[in-house]
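Dear colleague,

Thank you for sharing your sequence with our group. We've completed the structure prediction you requested, and as agreed, I am returning the results in plain text so they can be pasted directly into your records. Please verify that the sequence below matches your submission; if there's any discrepancy, let me know and we will rerun it promptly.
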Amino acid sequence: MRTTVVAVVMGIFFGMMADADVKPQKDFNLQRFAGKWYRVGLAYDSVSFVPFRDKLKASMGIVTALPNGNVNLTMWDVTPLGCQVMVYHYEKTNVPGQFTYFSTRHNMVKDITVMETNYTEYAVVLKHKVFNREYTQVALYGRTQTVRNDVINKFKAFALSQGFSRGSILTPPPAENCTPSRSG
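Please find the predicted structure tokens below.
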């Protein structure tokens, strides 16, 4: 019993330490970040996601900066059921580049951190819930459906540094026929 308590306390401590290293892009500029992005990479190791890995396609999203500093993200995903549209509402925090949102799928508040972006080509975004590895994801976004190999390698290295296995890091093929004009 005592060993279990020590293990839990150590897990919480290291979880807090890992979260302390989560810092957004320096001098993050939401207006420059807004616009069209494609999710061209994903690191996610949730057991419930494993059966769907080989079905994942690059998805398109539009980031809309709101006047109050919050963000709406509209994503178009190709699924076996066709083109699906999801809208996410991200609330600003007191740190530029960090947001929170309520995940209806997981019934909890999650943190979104723009880890790195050059605004015109790529962005690496961390979605996480402190102390719960199951809900953590790293995503690579590109302004186009393809990004340079060195950007993909940087994304993979970051995902590995966050504890993801190589098998949980995906770079899905481009999606076809799933655009705002084709969704209903």
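Summary note from our side: The longest strand covers residues 82-92.

Kind regards,
the structure core
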